[in-house]
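Final report, Chapter 2: Outcomes

The project's central promise was a pipeline that accepts a single protein chain and returns its three-dimensional structure in a standardized token representation, suitable for archiving and comparison. That pipeline is now operational. To close this chapter, we reproduce one record exactly as it appears in the project archive, with the input sequence first and the structure output second.
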Amino acid sequence: MAEYKLYCFAQSGNSYRNALMLNLIGADWEPVFVDFFKGGVQRTPEFRETVNEMGEAPVLEHNGRKLTQSGVILTYLARRSGQFLPQGEDEELEALRWIIFDNQKVNGYLGPYRFLRNWARPAPGQAAFDFLKGRIDGSLAILDKRLQGRPFLLGERPTIADLSLVGYFYYPPEEFGFDVRQGHPNIGPWLDRIKALPGWKHPYDLMPGHPMA
């Protein structure tokens, strides 16, 4: 039996952050498939009562604990492993600042945009996509500027802030209708640097549920 279990599914960028972290730190882990699209298991009373009252994935199960919210899980794994861990209060606060910015402004817009474009039925009108795309472009510009002249968000080494922000960036550009690298000269090399880390895997190779049955 694996030390860690991660409730996840392949299309979830929120889950990918944590699956990638587990792989990069060499953890003994296994995925537990959450059938988000067809089964809707995360919305059932049983899931909410026994796994996550919020009705969401990811959920990390470890030593009798069930941890939810990807930023919390990243922090927990970094503290336990000592890897990708911000050092000192200043770095901890800076990493938290970028994780919150990511959840609210970067993947907080990019994730819903991708979901609405690919799986929402009926799909929303063009105005909704235009609104989200404008927010995405603005947030990516901020991220790109931050990465100018530095290999990772906090400096010379990757931390959980980087692993949070890449949550949706490795999914195929056709799922978005645009490439996050386009027009952002610092984002592409940053993604390549993270991709070069030992243990990196694409989300569709790391988590169950792709291709969709």
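Archive annotation: Residues 88-118 form the longest helix (31 residues).
This record, like all others produced under the grant, will remain available to the consortium after the project formally closes.
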